[in-house]
Amino acid sequence: MTYIPESLRDQVEKRAQSRCEYCHLHENHAYFVHEIDHIYAEKHGGETREDNLCLACSDCNRRKGSNLCSLDPQTGKVVTLFHPRLDKWDEHFHLEDTGMITPLSSTGRVTERVLGFNRLELVIDRARLIALGSYKDQDS
Ligand SMILES: [Zn+2]
After folding, report:
1. Which end of the chain is least crowded, N or C, by CB within 10 Å?
2. Which domain holds residue 64?
3. Stretch 99-109: mean pLDDT
């Protein structure tokens, strides 16, 4: 694991407003501290620079690992995962009041599957936070 200077960590955390940039879980509601993710993993040539880093909850970060793409379950084509610096979340996902994160695109579908956004325990936790007004675009 590469050393990431504290100032760069702070910058990434502040930019993300302490939310996972994949599932949008706020760090205050996570069991573990959010982590700094190399969007393009170092083994693929991704650098430790602000534009290749994002804040990720430990769950999303662990599942994403060094993955860059996957097979779209609808088309069978290779599609890149959601890129927090290049893609807009709302164009690829929709947060349902039920706690489900519905994919809206091929990128959304592969990211939802690889990162496992809609595993039952996560959906239940997310629905509770939504009901409390503490999820995405809500006060934490
Ligand atoms: Zn997450």
Report:
1. N
2. 6-131
3. 98
